[in-house]
Amino acid sequence: MPEAKVAIVTGGSSGIGLALARLLLTRGWRVAIAGRDAARLRAASDALGARENLLTIPADVGDTPQARRVVRESVARFGRLDALVNNAGFAPLMPIEQGDDAFLDSVYRVNTLGPAAAIAEAWPTFTRQRSGVIVNVSTYGTKDPFPGFFAYAAAKAAAESMIRSVKNEGASIGVRGYAVAPGAVETPLLRGLFGEDAIPASQTLRPEAVAGVIAACCTGETGEANGSVIYLASPGAQGEAPEHDAGAMEAPTLPDVLTDLWRRLERGATERRHPYHQPVVSSMGEDASPRSRTVVLRNADRDGASLVFHTDARSPKCAELRANTALTWTFYDPASKVQLRVRSRAEVLTTGEIVDQRWANTRAMGRRCYLAPRTPGVSVGDQPDPNLPEALRHREPTEQESKPGRANFAVVRCAIESVDWLHLRHDGHRRAQFVFRDRKPDGGAWLAP
Ligand SMILES: Cc1cc2nc3c(=O)[nH]c(=O)nc-3n(C[C@H](O)[C@H](O)[C@H](O)COP(=O)(O)O)c2cc1C
């Protein structure tokens, strides 16, 4: 039987660290948890109830010699190290101008220097084994720091940067690294800062969910690329968070996949920077060869099982789609590594309430391309020509000027026939397909990827 794997989890006596220790122990790992408070460590040890496979190390990882000692004690006890999870965090809220030197020092010690020292101490063991994983637990705050997290977010950003170095320097010795950056997590650390009135429990992540993502990094089951920062937005969080649901789902069910794909499509339609905002759509050319082009996803309607893009009614694709309504959408998110291919039947609409409404909601700059004097795709001679009215080349049209564009505006509404969901993962890809009848998906089926 292969030797049981070993993880070090700092900040292991509560919150994410405790949930992770529990998860890894149930999977047969041996785990060393480090924490500052000996009494809390003992309570955690009792709660985990694992004697042989658990080592508790009282230590303040904000003190670099102690951070190094944690690694040495664990390696001395277990004889190997497979994952170092720098989870301990110190997240005080402090207005920028009030952060004196002692304060800045304490924040960087726990969140930056401790992890760096532990990584350095673990490296020779990893080099000897020619394997190992580092996970630095960061915060969503590195993307969008809550006021008061000036020092904390910057210190965690440094810990994220370390992971890119781990990837580059670890490549030749089989060492991988990840940063996991959750939003608000239901932990004592969060509740020490914010009450339920500021952040309701319904808007927090469960520590077990975050622990699941970290465990997937430790075991190599994550779909995320080595060296990446895995952002986990809190439920209901504002802003344009990357999608990571599928990566976070260890054993997704078909209903999970259906929920995941609709969430992606809906966010793709509403968030300009979402990776699904600009899919490729393919139709059949009149010469029976496929034609593909990038478009903007304008609407994803779950109840109506339809997707929408806008186009110039004169463009070749409209004629193609009238002759053959088959249209396939291709979406890909390189961060979460989920591809969707949606087969549909397209309807080119140029009149009616939907078209009027969509035109009314289009911004002036968006309307400018519909004022093109020439039919898209025709030859413009021996010089490039942007095909815009001369007066509007460097500005947006006024409401009045944009009106003639309405005649060239078309809405392409596509009734979904089937969706093929593919999630790339290190431990083997997953693929599912849903067939829609009368706008309703069937129960889905797993397919060979
Ligand atoms: C990022 C991006 C977004 C685009 N969005 C649209 C769009 O929403 N609608 C559209 O008709 N063309 C869009 N285009 C242009 C198309 O890709 C294509 O060049 C144009 O529609 C002509 O296609 P056709 O000759 O197949 O009709 C977009 C191109 C890019 C690069």
- Report the structural category: alpha/beta
What is the CATH H-level superfamily of the largest domain?
NAD(P)-binding Rossmann-like Domain
Q: Give the strand tally.
A: 17
Shape: elongated
Keywords:
449 residues, alpha/beta, Pnp Oxidase, Chain A, 10-stranded antiparallel beta sheet, 7-stranded parallel beta sheet, 13 helices, elongated, binds flavin mononucleotide
Brief sketch in words of this structure:
The chain has 13 helices and 17 strands.
Any chance you could write out the topology, listing elements then pairs?
Blueprint: E1 6-10, H1 15-26, E2 30-35, H2 38-48, E3 54-58, H3 64-78, E4 83-86, H4 101-129, E5 132-137, H5 150-170, E6 175-182, H6 188-191, H7 207-219, E7 229-232, H8 245-248, H9 254-270, E8 280-284, E9 290-294, E10 299-301, E11 306-312, H10 316-323, E12 326-333, E13 338-349, H11 353-360, H12 364-367, H13 399-402, E14 409-423, E15 430-437, E16 440-441, E17 445-447
Parallel strand pairs: 1-2, 1-4, 2-3, 4-5, 5-6, 6-7
Antiparallel strand pairs: 8-9, 8-12, 10-11, 11-14, 12-13, 13-14, 14-15, 15-16, 15-17
Helix pairs in contact: 1-7, 3-4, 4-5
Bound molecules: flavin mononucleotide.
